[in-house]
């Protein structure tokens, strides 16, 4: 039940308190993948889960610009401050909740959004009239999670499965050539870099040549299944419970 | 040149300082038109103008949630505070400008956004490193503008032309039945109402039965042409000029 | 019942829930009219209405500085940010309401304040314990409204009637010479200018030679009568009502 | 040179960098003195000093609502938050400075504004392009300062001299009857009270029967003379100087 | 009962609603006294009072950085904006109150914090669920208060008694040599200076040679006794009381 | 070179651009460890590193209250909002940098601060005149990091070595009895809990019986050594560098 294409009269009849809010980013994803990768991937996962889930789930339109200043040196990257982003998410979750959809999973496609989403959903649970949690799809694909990188095999694969026309497969060699093998520039466990141009030439981390549409399909299945399980848990969660009570 | 589907390397080569930022809303549009009407219409106009324009124009992804608390009593309506909305737009325009696209037209599909967009673009011109103006498509369709309403003939027509699958044509009678003939509840020129449920039963203002795909095509042509002329003017504008200088 | 000159014990006895809050601006009004024009005019209208109205009405002191950065290139213009202005108005309305005067009309004399007043009064109605609406006097003078301009016939006439000593009648020719015939610099319905020095040499829009004290008296009568009618409506308004309920 | 009644063309010719910004309050002043006492008194002092001073001085319109929540239990009292008040003052001083009047004395009539004015003028001096200091008139009347109170002999006297029509002389006995002899409710040097109704029955502190128009004239002379001396000092001040260099 | 060194289980059993929150500053205190003087002194007074008081009192860890931008030209001085400082204090008082310790005395060691603490504790009393007052130790030492200065006899004496190892007694002559005899640079009762380097060469105001450990002991006794009396008063205070009943 | 106990004249002579800012928390650490555990541990690590480092390093006083609302149900826990905390840290780092110590490592002892410190230090590097990174001591103790928990073996060990008087060793059994074996309540990789009382009875995660003073010494050595290496790297870092030169 996608809000963008439904009428208010139809969604008013929906019997559910579950909603998904896809959140992406518009930022460089190397020479081979589109700036909208994170949004497209988040939407793909949210759509798949909403379709598979047994009961109706409201799907809000995706928030297309997130926290991506780290990629500012790469053309086309858009960003908001963390504070603006958190306010935007909080307001949208609040309006979803006002209609009775007060169990919200924020379906996230961008690593840079994770900390801010954790902060804002926690604040919502404690202080607003809603229960919300963030779900980042590439953290929920079993052992594949460790291969994440940036514009690397995972993101590229999901695009090749769900939005193949957006990937320049003929540039995968070029993408690999200018890539870095790790995110950041580390001293112990401290990342000395604040922007991605400090450690990757073309914006890529990881090897996108290892991507495939088949892997993309598997990733979509895994993450959509994980999201469905999360919806079950979110529906049942008592935010007031204490372990000894 | 849509950022969502282009790579950073391709947009880096674009020789332009012009960008379009579509801004919509997710809000009730009667029983016949989708909650995403304003976003879909803004995107349609931005796309048409970018395609027609002689030189390349960057098109940012549409901002899907705007200032729509006035429709809060109708299910599915999403909104942010005015302050959050302005910050979000300002941040996005600032990041567009950082890449050299510092002449930005915000292509707007929602009446409730107009005042906030005027405020924020003016602040950008005066205090940031960019020139930005808002363009609201239904204000730029010649004499048709006066028939605007809400979910009325204009918006419905543009949908029927550009996104016909989203309109329930079989509900136009029902839509007209519960509609109001004016926006607001007026004493003189003061609107006593703050929310739309105070003056319309089903959210509609105007008569959507007067819509047609043909009218939609005409509206798209008119507004896209007006937007192209505006791009010419924006490209040439000297924000520092004074009349006597 | 003007707060500035009444004692708290006298206003405590007033049996009313109606208050007027005049809001002006300190900004250039050409070579012939004072920087305080908007404040003086707003006060004149508020005073006239309070006097004519059948029941007691509290009149707060006028807020003298508003949103006028657009005139910053003309000496003597003062302004606050939109955000500061809205906070100031909201706080003052809130304190009025705390004393039981929770039906407030903001009597405005400046076009630049209109959008911000609409935003803040709407927020007050939805989220605070008060009902407030903005009233801009020159929008409520029948067909004369179309002649508004800036420091033009309307504002100058009201001054010549209510505060004649502040107008330099011997400079009306000079004022007309350097004036513009329209507010803004337009491409279609988009104003490309953000500041008034971009389109007027001496700050005037319209022809102040068409002003007269007689016209001023008429304008005062019209706007005060409109304001009295609005007070009736505001007193009766149920902010919670829905059309179908 | 009062901005409210001057034209922009006339003030543009003024050769000065000095400005006065009167700041008052709208708050209870007992049964005998008007809610606008602090504004009226601040204006009287600013006017007298501007007139006496050898060189031209710009006088801004008075800010009529300040920090007065402490009187909220007395009808008619208006207030803003400290934060809003500081922003309002900072914005106005900033716009004065933009026209070359960047040596600003804030002429204050209300004790509750003192701390906030000190904070904001200090911030202006350190971080903006202006030099500003607050001047509170009743702190600058020699040995009389110690008799200040609230709506007591000093404020009442200045009103009786400068705005005699606003004082109910026939209520001075009543005012004295319900008055307190000290501001606050003290344990050591800590005031346990946050609001004035905690320690005064009718809002008065001190004995207004000791007021007179003659005393008012003396107070006006003293404070205006002190303000003129301050203007001399402000004109000469080098904000960057250090004692040893 | 110091929170820093107690366990949560032990403080959970405490039967009290009283808490002390020491607030200091890290700022220059001349060549002889440490940058942490204000924090050390505030802690000493809070500790002494908590020990002497008949009933248990919770002592929060000291806030070590306050409002000290005025000393920015002297190395090692740290500061926050007034706004940040107020928020920090308000949040901490709020969390103290959440555990039932909702009668809080902020024990302050720095003159620059006084106005901000008055503002924020007043806001807390009016709008939060706690009663809080600020107590500045050197204002509560009888006639000694008048000798305060900065890094002068009072502060140095208290250090020499409570933290003698932090004072360089061999530099007292040097400290006196570069000191000023008054805080500020005055025209009437207006301080024209915003920073301390404008009126003191080495940061000292007053003569630290007049300090002694014995005087320090007396000061500690006086201020701790005053604080104990204040705790009695704070425990009994009814924030809602009005004088007339 | 600890600012708290040094004079400004002594630190002014220090030849270094390195500073450490310890950041802790006041929050429950089970029945056996003090509420100030995180502050004490952060100070211990900062002190050890400053002492071992070859060149002088400025050590600021520890910020004692951080982001700990998650423990709000356990008595004695103090917290600020994330926004207040970030502002406080940013202001302090800014004042450190103003004295030439513009290479700052924030030495953190609390997991709940990590995301906020990452956000604020990144903002400082990009937009202020300083380079700052966060260092969390228990992330830098080799393979021990995985045993972290809360009030578990690592934190307790470091206390037993550096502040043994603060640990109730006789309560370690009790602490273990009510502890949880994992932080959070998980569905996949989403933590459904927002507060610690949802998953631990007495606030402990992990088994503090596995702590020892010897392990504490090892942890201190490891983390101090890691911090010294980081200081080397921070001193050399060019924040403007890009990988491709």
Q: Which series of helices and strands of chain A comes N to C? A: HEHEHEHEHHEEH
Order of strands across the main sheet of chain A: 2-1-3-4
Helical content band of chain A: 25-40%
Q: What multimeric state do the chains show? A: homohexamer
Largest sheet of chain A: 4 strands, parallel
Low-confidence stretches of chain A: none
Structural class of chain A: alpha/beta
Shape summary of chain A: globular
Account of the 3D structure:
The structure is a homohexamer of 245-residue chains. Chain A is α/β, with parallel strands linked by helices. Helices cover 38% and strands 10% of the residues of chain A. Chain A has seven helices and six strands, in the order αβαβαβαβααββα. Chain A has helices at residues 8-12, 37-52, 82-98, 114-127, 153-162, 172-177, 213-236, and strands at 18-23, 58-59, 103-108, 131-136, 186-187, 190-191. In chain A, the strands form two sheets. The first copy, chain A, has a four-stranded parallel β-sheet, with helices on both faces. Chain A is globular, with a radius of gyration of 18 Å. The N and C termini of chain A lie far apart (37 Å). At the A-B interface, α1 and α3 of A face α1 and α3 of B.
